[in-house]
Amino acid sequence: ITKYSPEVLKGILVPLLTILLMMPIALCILGPLGNILGNYLATGIIWLYDTTGFLGVGVFAAILPFIIITGMHFGFFPYLFAAFANPGYEL
């Protein structure tokens, strides 16, 4: 876009056209893909926690910073709320 924009209009055209082109890609491809990957990641960590106990907590704690950087930690919220709501605390 920068290559083909006139120099006078670059300040307006480049951000506008970038958003107009990338928004459908983000909403139609990246959003659903992130949701699917987040659900698989959460299910895998929950399975590891249920089968290995404290080892699963250690693995989760080790990879949690990377999960937060990518924004995939939002996939854990439904499981977290369900775990707290069921008995009132996590076992």
Description:
With 91 residues, the protein is mainly α. The chain is built from three helices and no strands. It has helices spanning 10-52, 54-70, 77-85. Helix 1 runs antiparallel to helix 2. The longest helix has 43 residues, at 10-52. It is elongated.
SSE string, helix = H, strand = E? HHH
- Overall spatial form: elongated
Distance between the termini: 54 Å
Helix content: over 70%
What structural class do you assign from the helix and strand content? mainly alpha
Mean pLDDT: 86
Task: Specify the number of helices.
Answer: 3
Low-confidence spans: none
Strands, total number: 0
Strand content: under 5%
Tell me about the largest β-sheet.
none
Please tell me how large the radius of gyration is: 20 Å
